[in-house]
Amino acid sequence: MRALTVAPLETDSVRVSEVEAPAAGEGELLVDGIALGICGTDREIARGDYGWAPPGQDRLILGHESLGRVREAPGGSGFAPGDLVVGVVRRPDPEPCGACAHGEFDMCRNGRYTERGIKDRHGFGAQQWTVEADYAVKLDPALERVGVLLEPTTVVTKAWEHIERIGARAWFAPRRVLVTGAGPIGLLAALLGVQRGLEVHVLDRAASGVKPELVAALGASYHTGTIPEVAAEAEPDVVIEATGATAVVLDAVTHTASAGIVCLTGIPAAGPKVGVDTGALNREMVLENDVVFGSVNANLRHFRLAAEALARADLAWLERLITRRLPLSRAHEAFTPQEDDVKVVIDL
Ligand code: BGC
Q1: Which of 26, 138, 256, 328 is the most exposed place for a label (fewest CB within 10 A)?
Q2: Which parts of the sequence belong to the Alcohol dehydrogenase-like N-terminal domain (predicted)?
Q3: Can you give the residue range of the structural domain that contains 233?
Q4: Residue 60 alpha carbon to ligand 1 centre in Å
């Protein structure tokens, strides 16, 4: 079978390789890959900046945004051949730390977690893959064209859950949210904001194209100005930052509302250094009870909640988020972003 592989930390080593088909071990599903989503982390791995092959191997099967159809399932697993499934990305560290021991491996304390397609475990970018039934999530059969969006949806499901848990520290009745960045994470965060009945504002650089249309179709407001301008107008209770761009991040953390919650979801490269008036920032955060926090990855609870959120969303809207679909033979094209791309998907 064919798989999308990479030699981690080597530049431009992405290949479609012939690899041995996997066999399901005890408690595992054998899955026919349908589609694979490509995100910034995959591009980082493809560039040679990130990623770890499984111990003792040179190449990693790439891919953590999965969608497949069950071919074989063990009896009593709750899965049957034909089911649409997505695999969970992260596995607990071997120790395990307290968070991992509680199933919250997305909050792993010692960093020894592993991740499919990213860290020490082969990913889902293959015509067939296996997954432990305990780390697979069944999707509504209607999601066949868009279920590949589940993993990025889990990332924002976790972000929203944590925003609500932080909000619950005191009286909390948010009305408006500002999402910075109209990529897949930003747009899915906006979708979940709309599903929560909030007034949603999305800020992005693109002045035309599919992004403003997608935001309008959600019933949300689209902005191309700066955070200070938009924040003055929209007065957001919550900001979800999804660009990772230094200037935007700085504006997001320095223009919060009183008791504002800012969730950072971008994963930028380090540098360059910028000057910050920490005294002013500290003063404002304390005097306004502000919270700025980071959020990454997701656990099984988030995968299940995200599957419900996708099933409730408008299928046509979700389909428009997938702006390019490539056959596996042209997978390398997915690593060069194009103007107006939202989500690029490889058909397996
Ligand atoms: C994935 C997360 C993962 C993170 C860091 C993201 O792109 O969505 O699941 O934890 O990269 O490896």
Answers
A1: 26
A2: 25-139
A3: 154-294
A4: 15
CATH of the domain at 54: 3.90.180.10
The protein residue whose alpha carbon is closest to atom 10 in ligand 1 is 297
Domain membership of residue 335 (yes or no) is: yes
> What distances in angstroms separate CA 137 from CA 22, 83, 131, 149, one per listed residue?
20, 10, 10, 13
Nearest-atom index, ligand 1, CA of 42: 7
Q: Where would I find the beta strands (DSSP E) of 39-167?
A: 60-61, 65-72, 84-87, 90-91, 114-116, 120-121, 128-132, 136-139
Separation of first and last alpha carbons in the chain: 10
Q: What is the pLDDT of residues 160-192, one digit of tens each?
A: 999 999 999 999 999 999 999 999 999 999 999
Mutate to test the pocket of ligand 1, among 88, 137, 155, 157 (most ligand atoms within 8 A of CB): 155
If one counts the domains in the chain, the total is 2
pTM above 0.90, yes or no: yes
What residue ranges line ligand 1, CB within 6 angstroms? 39, 41, 64, 89-90, 115, 118, 155, 296-297
Using one digit for the tens of pLDDT, what is the confidence trace for 26-70?
A: 999 999 999 999 999 999 999 999 999 999 999 999 999 999 999
What residue ranges of the chain have pLDDT lower than 70? Answer: none
Ligand 1 atom closest to 106 (CA):
10
